[in-house]
Amino acid sequence: MLRLFVLRHGKSDWGALSSLDLDRPLADRGERAARRMGRFLTVSGRPPDSVICSPAVRARRTVELAAQAGEWSCSIRISETLYGGSVGEVLDEVRREPSSSTSVLIAGHQPTWSALIASLTGGGQCRFPTAALACIRFHGEAWDRVNFGGGELSWLVTPRLLDAAGFS
């Protein structure tokens, strides 16, 4: 069984003095949410074996904070594909993962993440707010065999849902 965790970056700071979208940092709320999602993933018993992250500052910082808070000891690699790439290009990136990684986390952006979840699970729509985290399961043992429509959405959590449940 393979697990793909899809993490949207935390709330970004639109008031920051960065002129490029790529350089926009996280807001304080985004930093808190990133830490919470990292702890949640570890408490759920499935921290990632590896992480693929967008090069955007807000996505990289989300992963750094989540990994720190969750005490993950996995490799993190940056991929340009996760910043502005199509759903098909993101899937191709995931397919490059070795079979030794049975749980992979990808960190990136909307609207690609909602479209990716729908494509991997056979359709539908989902609201995917900042710092949301989804788990998609695939039957099989090799990432290079993962296809659209072959996944099952196991769960999707948001920072607000975790707040409401008392998870800090």
The coarse silhouette is globular
**What is the CATH level 1 assignment?**
Alpha Beta
Q: What is the mean predicted local confidence, pLDDT? A: 94
Total helix count?
5
How many structural domains are formed by the residues?
A: 1
CATH superfamily: Phosphoglycerate mutase-like
Multimeric state of these chains?
single chain
Sheet having the most strands: 6 strands, mixed
| Strand count | 6
Tell me which CATH architecture applies here. Answer: 3-Layer(aba) Sandwich
Topology as a string of helices (H) and strands (E) = EHEHEHEHEEH
Flag low-confidence runs.
none
Distance between the termini: 29 Å
% residues in beta strands: 15-25%
The order of strands across the largest sheet is 3-2-4-1-5-6
Question: What is the radius of gyration?
Answer: 15 Å
Q: How much helical structure, as a percent, in the residues? A: 25-40%
What is the SS-derived class? alpha/beta
The third-level CATH topology is: Rossmann fold
Feature tags:
alpha/beta, 168 residues, Rossmann fold, 6 strands, six-stranded mixed β-sheet, 5 helices
Report on this model:
The protein has 168 residues and is an alpha/beta fold. The chain has a single domain, classed as Phosphoglycerate mutase-like (Rossmann fold), CATH 3.40.50.1240. The protein has five helices and six strands. The protein has helices at 28-43, 57-70, 87-95, 112-121, 159-164, and strands spanning 2-8, 50-53, 75-78, 103-108, 133-138, 151-157. A six-stranded mixed beta sheet has the order 3-2-4-1-5-6, sandwiched between helices. Helix 1 (28-43) crosses helix 2 (57-70). The longest helix has 16 residues, at 28-43. The chain is globular, with a radius of gyration of 15 Å. The protein starts with a strand and ends with a helix. The relative contact order is 0.23.
